[in-house]
Structures are given as structure tokens and as C-alpha cells.
Description:
Blueprint: E1 9-10, E2 16-20, E3 23-28, E4 31-36, E5 42-46, E6 49-53, H1 59-80, E7 83-90, E8 95-99, E9 102-106, E10 113-115, E11 121-126, E12 130-135, H2 138-151, E13 161-164
Antiparallel strand pairs: 1-6, 2-3, 3-4, 5-6, 7-12, 7-13, 8-9, 9-10, 11-12
Amino acid sequence: MSRIGRLPIDIPAGVTVEVAGQDVAVKGPKGELTLTVARPIEVKVDEGQVLVTRPDDERESRSLHGLTRTLIANNIIGVTQGYSKGLEVVGTGYRVAQKGSSIEFALGFSHPVLVDPPAGITFAVEGNNKVTVSGIDKQAVGETAANIRKIRKPEPYKGKGIRYAGEVVRRKAGKAGK
């Protein structure tokens, strides 16, 4: 039995979980998220808890059991607390500025790079080199942060670029001087 999959998920106050066939809808103070559960897995709401069960010990059922439970738990955390990911812009002349709901990067290109937030995602700029990506969907927050980082990844010689908050960039020595 999956150690993660068999754990019940407690439903906090102010959150409702509705199961309709294979669709699970989670509503909370920050918004609403839905999840379509893969076919062999079954989800039930019982006495303030969400229970995820599997019908058999087939390989596919076992792999989906813990995954489904974690996705539902992430949705519950998302509608109550939300998720956020921090990014840092490192480099001489590299900076970021808020332009309405979108953000504008100056990253050494010949032009500024404008990034618009997808639906359900908000950007917050602190100073001129820190960005916080936040929202209720954990996957969307992570994907948006990864796409922003992809604009100018941190390079290994000087460490310049966009990195996650707290990310350690491995540095290379470079050419030896004469």
C-alpha cells in the first residue's frame, strides 16, 4: 500500500471538496481548483477528510495512488494559503520593474523583455532585482517561474542571470590568466 496514498487529507474550515465521478472540485477562500482523477483511482469525502483508494495492486494503480492524493492535498493548500516562488536577478545592469500587472526585465539584451502573467498568477517586484510569482495553483506558479528563469539562465562563469531565491549556482574557474 502506498504510504502517501493511504493517508487521509484533512479538510480545513472554510474549504469544501466535492467529488463528481472522476472530477474533484476544491473551493476555498482564495479561489476554486478542479482536478480530474485518473480512471482506476477512487476519491471519497468522509467526515471532514478526503480518502483516496485504489481497487487493485496493478503497477498503474500503485503509481497513481500517491500522486492523486498529493495533487488533491496541493489544491487544498492552494485555496487556503496559496503558493509563491521567489526569483532573483543577478548581474550588473540587470533589473526588473513592474509595469501594471506585467513585469519588464532589462537583461543585457538590445530590448527590454516584457512578461505578462497567465490567468491566476500575480507578480510582485521588490527593489529592482527580486520578483515573487504567486497564485493558488502550484503547477502554474512553478511553470511560470521556470519560464521567467528560462529568459536568461544563470551562467557558470560570473553567475549572471535569473535564479530562484536561494539557488546556488556552481561557478567555473574560466581561463587561467597569463
